[in-house]
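testing teh design pipeline on a random one, pls ignore if ur not involved
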C-alpha cells in the first residue's frame, strides 16, 4: 500500500510541476499572443498611418493638388481611429505615455496642416484674385500706353513703357518660379526688378503730357502695386507656411513616427524578452521535468526493488519452508510412521522446517503466518510422535520386564512344584514303607500327588499365560499406533499377573515349608498325626490350587 501511495505522490508531483510550468508558459504565450502582439499590431498601424498622413500632407502642400486633401483627411481619420483603439489596448505605462504624446502631436500636426491649408487657400485666392488679375491688367495698360506713345511718335515714352513692361514680365516670371519652386533667392531678384520698375515709372510720369497717357500710366502703376502687394502677401504666407512646415510638420511628423516606432520597438523588445523568457522557461521546464522524472524513475526503480525484495523475500522463505515440509518433513514423518506401524519403537522424528519471523500485515504476512501455523502444528506432531515413541518404549520395556518377571516366577513355581512332587513321592514312599495299612494316608498321598500335578499344570498354565502375555506385548508393540489404551490395560493386567505369580511363589515357599514339616511329622509321629497332617496339607493344597487358578485366569485374559 505504501508503494502505491509513493507512486501516486510521484505522479502528483510530476503532474503539478508540469501543470504549473505549462500554466506559466500559457500565461507568457497569452501575453505574447494577445497583449504584446496586439500592441505590436497597433504600433505598426500607427507608424503606417503616420507615414500615409504625412505622405498625403506633403503631396498636397507640394503639388497644390486638391485631390490629395480628401486622402489626407481619410488617412488622418484612420490614424485617430488607430490611436483610439491603441488607448484601449496599450496598458504598459511607458507605451501608454508615448501613445498620449503621439495623440497630442497628431492633434498639433492636424492643426498645423489646417493652418497651412488655409495659407494655401489664401495664396490661391491671392493668385486668382490679384496676381492673375492685376498682372494681365498692368500688362494691358502698359501695352495701351506703349501703343499711344508710338502712335503719337513719342518714342521715349514708348521705350520706357516697353522697358517697364519687360521688368514687369520679369517680375511675374520670378513670382511664377517662386510659386512653383518656392526658392527664397528669387525674392531679392523680384524686389530688385520691382525697384527698377518703380524708377522707370517715376521717369515715365514726368513725360506724361496728356491726361489719357497719365490715366493709363496711373492704372498700370496701380495694377503693378497691387500685384506686388499680392505677391508680398503670398511671400509672407509662403514664409509662414515654410516656417510651419519646418518647425511643425517636419518636426512633429517625424516625432510621431519616432514615438510610434519606439512603441513598436518597445513591443518588439518586450516580445523578444518574453520570447526569450518563454524559451528559458520551456528549457527550465524541460530540465525540471526531466530532473523530476529522473528522480521519479530512480525512486520508482528503488521502490520497485524494495517492493520486489519485500515480496520475493517472504515468498522465498515460504517456498523454502514449503519445499522443506514437502520434500523432507512430510516424507520423514511418513517413513517414521511406517516404521512405527511395523513395530520399530526406536524411531525418532527430526523436523528441519522452522517458523518464519514476519511482522508484515499484508497478504504475504497472512500467508507467512498461515504457513507458520502449519509448521507449528507439524512440530507439535513431531513432538507428539517423539513423546509417543518414548512412552511406547517405556511401556514395552515395562511389559517385557513384567513378562520376564512372570516367566521367572513361573519357572520358580514349576521348580517348587517339582520339589513338592518329589517331597510327596518321598512321603508316599515313606508311608508305603511304614505300613500298607495306611491306605488312607496312601490315598491322601495320591490325592496330594494329584493336587501337586494340578499345581504343576496350573504353574505350566501360568507359564503359558506369561508366554501369551509376552506375545501379546510383542503384538501390542506392532499395534500400539492403533490402540495405546489397550497397551495400558495390558500393562495393568500383566502387573496384576506378576503380583499373582509373586504371591504364588510365596505360597510355594510356604508349601515347601509345610512339606518339610509334614516330612518331619511323618517321621516322628504316629499315623493319626500323619493323617491329620495329610488332611491339613490337602486343605492347603486346595487353597493354593484355588489361588493359582484365580491367578492364572487374568494371565489368559
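output:
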Amino acid at each position: 500500500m505504501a508503494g502505491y501511495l509513493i507512486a501516486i505522490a510521484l505522479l502528483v508531483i510530476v503532474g503539478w510541476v508540469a501543470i504549473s510550468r505549462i500554466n506559466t508558459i500559457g500565461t507568457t504565450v497569452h501575453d505574447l499572443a494577445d497583449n504584446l502582439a496586439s500592441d505590436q499590431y497597433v504600433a505598426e498601424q500607427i507608424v503606417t498611418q503616420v507615414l500615409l498622413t504625412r505622405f498625403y500632407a506633403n503631396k498636397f502642400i507640394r503639388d497644390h493638388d486638391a485631390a490629395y486633401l480628401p486622402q489626407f483627411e481619410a488617412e488622418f481619420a484612420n490614424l485617430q481611429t488607430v490611436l483610439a483603439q491603441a488607448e484601449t489596448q496599450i496598458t504598459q505605462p511607458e507605451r501608454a505615455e508615448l501613445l498620449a504624446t503621439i495623440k497630442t502631436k497628431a492633434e498639433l500636426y492636424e492643426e498645423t496642416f489646417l493652418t497651412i491649408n488655409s495659407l494655401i487657400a489664401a495664396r490661391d485666392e491671392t493668385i486668382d484674385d490679384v496676381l492673375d488679375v492685376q498682372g494681365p491688367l498692368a500688362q494691358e495698360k502698359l501695352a495701351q500706353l506703349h501703343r499711344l506713345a508710338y502712335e503719337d511718335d513719342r518714342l521715349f515714352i514708348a521705350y520706357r513703357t516697353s522697358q517697364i513692361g519687360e521688368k514687369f514680365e520679369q517680375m511675374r516670371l520670378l513670382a511664377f518660379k517662386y510659386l512653383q519652386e518656392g526658392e527664397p533667392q528669387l525674392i531679392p531678384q523680384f524686389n530688385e526688378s520691382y525697384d527698377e520698375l518703380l524708377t522707370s515709372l517715376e521717369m515715365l510720369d514726368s513725360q506724361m503730357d496728356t491726361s489719357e497717357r497719365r490715366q493709363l500710366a496711373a492704372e498700370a502703376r496701380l495694377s503693378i502695386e497691387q500685384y506686388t502687394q499680392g505677391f508680398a502677401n503670398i511671400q509672407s504666407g509662403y514664409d509662414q507656411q515654410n516656417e510651419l512646415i519646418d518647425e511643425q510638420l517636419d518636426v512633429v511628423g517625424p516625432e510621431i513616427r519616432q514615438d510610434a516606432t519606439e512603441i513598436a520597438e518597445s513591443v518588439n523588445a518586450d516580445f523578444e524578452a518574453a520570447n526569450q523568457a518563454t524559451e528559458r522557461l520551456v528549457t527550465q521546464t524541460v530540465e525540471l521535468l526531466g530532473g523530476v522524472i529522473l528522480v521519479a524513475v530512480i525512486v520508482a526503480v528503488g521502490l520497485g526493488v524494495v517492493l520486489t525484495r519485500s515480496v520475493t523475500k517472504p515468498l522465498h522463505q515460504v517456498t523454502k519452508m514449503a519445499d522443506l515440509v514437502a520434500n523432507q518433513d512430510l516424507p520423514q514423518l511418513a517413513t517414521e510412521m511406517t516404521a512405527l506401524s511395523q513395530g520399530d519403537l526406536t524411531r525418532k522424528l527430526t523436523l528441519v522446517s522452522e517458523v518464519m519471523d514476519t511482522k508484515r500485515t499484508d497478504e504475504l504476512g497472512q500467508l507467512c503466518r498461515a504457513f507458520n501455523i502449519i509448521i507449528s502444528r507439524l512440530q507439535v506432531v513431531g513432538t507428539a510422535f517423539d513423546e509417543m515413541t518414548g512412552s511406547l518404549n517405556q511401556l514395552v520395556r515395562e511389559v517385557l520386564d513384567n513378562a520376564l518377571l512372570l516367566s521367572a516366577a513361573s519357572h520358580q513355581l514349576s521348580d517348587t512344584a517339582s520339589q513338592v512332587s518329589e517331597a510327596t513321592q518321598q512321603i508316599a514312599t515313606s508311608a508305603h514303607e511304614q505300613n500298607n495299612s495306611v491306605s488312607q494316608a496312601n490315598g491322601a498321598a495320591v490325592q496330594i500327588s494329584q493336587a501337586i500335578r494340578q499345581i504343576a499344570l496350573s504353574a505350566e498354565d501360568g507359564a503359558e499365560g506369561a508366554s501369551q502375555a509376552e506375545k501379546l506385548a510383542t503384538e501390542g508393540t506392532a499395534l500400539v499406533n492403533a490402540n495405546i489404551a489397550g497397551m495400558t490395560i495390558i500393562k495393568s493386567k500383566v502387573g496384576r499377573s506378576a503380583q499373582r505369580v509373586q504371591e504364588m511363589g510365596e505360597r510355594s515357599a510356604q508349601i515347601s515349608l509345610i512339606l518339610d514339616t509334614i516330612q518331619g511329622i511323618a517321621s516322628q509321629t504316629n499315623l493319626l498325626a500323619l493323617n491329620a497332617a495329610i488332611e491339613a496339607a490337602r486343605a492347603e493344597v486346595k487353597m493354593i490350587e484355588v489361588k493359582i487358578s484365580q491367578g492364572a485366569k487374568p494371565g489368559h485374559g
